[in-house]
Amino acid sequence: MRVVIWGQLSQTERKLVLARSQASDDEALIRQVKEIIANVRQNGDKALLEYAAKFDGAKLDCLLVSEDEYKAIESLSNDEKQAILTAIDNIRHYHNISCPKSFEFERNGAKLGKLYRPIEKVGLYIPGGTAPLVSTLLMLAIPATIAGCETKVLVTPPGKNGLVNPAILFAAKACGIDAIYKAGGAQAVAALAFGTESIPKVYKIFGPGNKYVTEAKIQVSQTHNGAALDMPAGPSEVLVIADDKANPVFVASDLLAQAEHDVAAQVILLTTSTELANKVHQEVERQTAYLSRKEIIKQSLAKSAVIIAKDLAEAFVISNQYAPEHLILQIANAEDYLPQVINAGSVFVGEWTPESVGDYASGTNHVLPTYGYAQMYSGLDVIAFMKAISFQNLSASGIKTLGPVVETLADLEGLDAHKNAVTVRLQHLNS
Amino acid sequence: MRVVIWGQLSQTERKLVLARSQASDDEALIRQVKEIIANVRQNGDKALLEYAAKFDGAKLDCLLVSEDEYKAIESLSNDEKQAILTAIDNIRHYHNISCPKSFEFERNGAKLGKLYRPIEKVGLYIPGGTAPLVSTLLMLAIPATIAGCETKVLVTPPGKNGLVNPAILFAAKACGIDAIYKAGGAQAVAALAFGTESIPKVYKIFGPGNKYVTEAKIQVSQTHNGAALDMPAGPSEVLVIADDKANPVFVASDLLAQAEHDVAAQVILLTTSTELANKVHQEVERQTAYLSRKEIIKQSLAKSAVIIAKDLAEAFVISNQYAPEHLILQIANAEDYLPQVINAGSVFVGEWTPESVGDYASGTNHVLPTYGYAQMYSGLDVIAFMKAISFQNLSASGIKTLGPVVETLADLEGLDAHKNAVTVRLQHLNS
């Protein structure tokens, strides 16, 4: 990790230190995803079964996970089941509180309000790969259930054996997801957006994925009658603000937890103490030695930075400018600094709050804006599975009061049919 | 308006009746917008001044509206000023209530919460054209101000005389917008997304516009370090549900208010009464005769439909399938039917609530999801000008309780650096 002193950098150098790697337009990827989507729209399940064989190495007869396959849940230990259930309980608690509430009020002869309604059909994408991303399932399925989405379609790529990991099956059952389909990649996104014989069409698609999934989500979101996407995606990232009292062992472990995600993961340590920076550096080396994903860690750390700030005020300016997905505060009286956080996905406050607790089980959602999007996007929450409908109901006296105002404004905008809709009513009331 | 009886239509015919016109990829438009954006990024204000001459026919020395120009406000009548102020008061009242609230709670040794923060820099686009869209300004500026956005950059195309309409200037002042820049079209969007010498860069761009504006918003939202957009855009639309007791004069006036917007506007009357449909048809002809925008009205009505439903239950199924931007309920005991509304942008309840009241002054926001997007998007509101940041703060006892759960889940996902971040803390506490 290279070390820079913020005060000694030019404006351009500062921008470079905080810059994310820019994704280049990958024409081949765009074309390939386009072809996959077209094929799924044309051939439905048949295309999905062929892609499962080609990309997942899985020979499937049927996309839907059968009742029989759920027996695999028995292979989980009690500890594993209990950990999943505790995480569900905490995530449910937080998201229940976070659920938006409809309201109505009366004023000047008008009743007005806002109604929150679930999005009727949602798609949940759970990536496959070497390990089952149980936590991602919880982070999507729980808010979808609290929102009250009627149709929740879960897709996940099968393993080579054609099966879905038992932990995913257990978590899905526990979250009230009834139907799991074995499909991954761009083809799964296409199936969710347009439907196939077995997979129902949905209105919005949630969940992370590789570059094919991300590109497919963008393409279907721009297609007439396709499906909206949850938020734009980029590599995961952490920024740790630490002062001279921070424990270098904890700081290093937090940087490493981020670095193991992906070689593209971004890791920044922002500290007021050069001494701490040195100690963290040593700790990173010591801990990396015993971690299994050390090759990934080394590559992501190679691109990462340690920034020395002159004080915490400067540190928060830098952090807000970067707008990190995860912000960890390992500083004295950390909670007092929350008001200074303007741009971040989720904040981990104080020495006993590693990012991992939020990733899995504290209760907050771990699907967060990356890539600087925390400037204007929120992390996932129940509201993302709902939409708001406003309403107004005027009484006769209400239109008498408000009508002339509307007539004047419609006149100003030159829209006389807008005005007329009020005028015919006022005439009726005055006749 | 053609009349169809829902019960006699095939599935395909039903889809066709409710289908929106599909926008075709306009390669020339996409290329032209790309060039405009590149030019503005390269040449800044100079490009904007050239485009103002070329597209708006306005010779400008300076993009910012000068203090002197605000004197034009004096040309407004007291009625006009008062109407704008009343609308502001109502819109502010509704949006204040609608503003999301931060929360926090404690549980199992953890304090968790959610902080709402304004998006720091937002761009507000007010279209130009023959009439000043004062109401659009109110619908963007008021929630931006309630959210607390620090930098609110308002752009609007100048008239041929190089000036901005006095009503826009008055409304902007009254809403607390200090800086108005004379720029329109794709070039204004480019300036907001990337900044120029005089126009500050913003993080998110709000407001309707023509096809160049819409395409530019899409392009900058997909560009690294560009700007997010408010919501996807399509032609405006209304669906009126009316029973046999509805007043045909009112129903016709509501259909016409929508039809005058644009030749692409969509108008649907959904009724349980053939007799009412006939009366509305006559009223549409009678009222059209005295309206000024009759040529636009005739063209948009030509594509519109009257659907006869067998009962109100069927009508609501059809309406929810269509997911109208504006839904008008002219039925007995209209408010009792609100629970049946699943997909709509805003609902106008009962005979005294024409759409125009919501367009201008009832208090709800008139920037609403079109084109079926009400299935998964909300209308504009304060929350669109904010983002939520979650936080968690565990005590030592909190990590002791939750830590083992996180370790188990990290193990399941094969992420041992995630586990390690907990383990080093538990070791510290147990040592």
From TrEMBL, chains A, B:
<feature type="binding site">
    <location>
        <position position="261"/>
    </location>
    <ligand>
        <name>substrate</name>
    </ligand>
</feature>
<dbReference type="InterPro" id="IPR012131">
    <property type="entry name" value="Hstdl_DH"/>
</dbReference>
<dbReference type="GO" id="GO:0005829">
    <property type="term" value="C:cytosol"/>
</dbReference>
<keyword id="KW-0560">Oxidoreductase</keyword>
<keyword id="KW-0028">Amino-acid biosynthesis</keyword>
<keyword id="KW-0479">Metal-binding</keyword>
<feature type="binding site">
    <location>
        <position position="359"/>
    </location>
    <ligand>
        <name>substrate</name>
    </ligand>
</feature>
<feature type="binding site">
    <location>
        <position position="187"/>
    </location>
    <ligand>
        <name>NAD(+)</name>
    </ligand>
</feature>
<feature type="binding site">
    <location>
        <position position="326"/>
    </location>
    <ligand>
        <name>substrate</name>
    </ligand>
</feature>
<feature type="binding site">
    <location>
        <position position="359"/>
    </location>
    <ligand>
        <name>Zn(2+)</name>
    </ligand>
</feature>
<dbReference type="GO" id="GO:0004399">
    <property type="term" value="F:histidinol dehydrogenase activity"/>
</dbReference>
<keyword id="KW-0862">Zinc</keyword>
<feature type="binding site">
    <location>
        <position position="125"/>
    </location>
    <ligand>
        <name>NAD(+)</name>
    </ligand>
</feature>
<dbReference type="GO" id="GO:0008270">
    <property type="term" value="F:zinc ion binding"/>
</dbReference>
<protein>
    <recommendedName>
        <fullName>Histidinol dehydrogenase</fullName>
        <ecNumber>1.1.1.23</ecNumber>
    </recommendedName>
</protein>
<feature type="binding site">
    <location>
        <position position="258"/>
    </location>
    <ligand>
        <name>substrate</name>
    </ligand>
</feature>
<feature type="active site" description="Proton acceptor">
    <location>
        <position position="325"/>
    </location>
</feature>
<dbReference type="InterPro" id="IPR022695">
    <property type="entry name" value="Histidinol_DH_monofunct"/>
</dbReference>
<dbReference type="InterPro" id="IPR016161">
    <property type="entry name" value="Ald_DH/histidinol_DH"/>
</dbReference>
<feature type="binding site">
    <location>
        <position position="418"/>
    </location>
    <ligand>
        <name>Zn(2+)</name>
    </ligand>
</feature>
<comment type="pathway">
    <text>Amino-acid biosynthesis; L-histidine biosynthesis; L-histidine from 5-phospho-alpha-D-ribose 1-diphosphate: step 9/9.</text>
</comment>
<dbReference type="Pfam" id="PF00815">
    <property type="entry name" value="Histidinol_dh"/>
</dbReference>
<comment type="similarity">
    <text>Belongs to the histidinol dehydrogenase family.</text>
</comment>
<keyword id="KW-0368">Histidine biosynthesis</keyword>
<feature type="binding site">
    <location>
        <position position="413"/>
    </location>
    <ligand>
        <name>substrate</name>
    </ligand>
</feature>
<feature type="binding site">
    <location>
        <position position="236"/>
    </location>
    <ligand>
        <name>substrate</name>
    </ligand>
</feature>
<feature type="binding site">
    <location>
        <position position="210"/>
    </location>
    <ligand>
        <name>NAD(+)</name>
    </ligand>
</feature>
<feature type="binding site">
    <location>
        <position position="418"/>
    </location>
    <ligand>
        <name>substrate</name>
    </ligand>
</feature>
<feature type="binding site">
    <location>
        <position position="258"/>
    </location>
    <ligand>
        <name>Zn(2+)</name>
    </ligand>
</feature>
<dbReference type="GO" id="GO:0000105">
    <property type="term" value="P:L-histidine biosynthetic process"/>
</dbReference>
<keyword id="KW-0520">NAD</keyword>
<dbReference type="GO" id="GO:0051287">
    <property type="term" value="F:NAD binding"/>
</dbReference>
<comment type="function">
    <text>Catalyzes the sequential NAD-dependent oxidations of L-histidinol to L-histidinaldehyde and then to L-histidine.</text>
</comment>
<feature type="binding site">
    <location>
        <position position="261"/>
    </location>
    <ligand>
        <name>Zn(2+)</name>
    </ligand>
</feature>
<feature type="active site" description="Proton acceptor">
    <location>
        <position position="326"/>
    </location>
</feature>
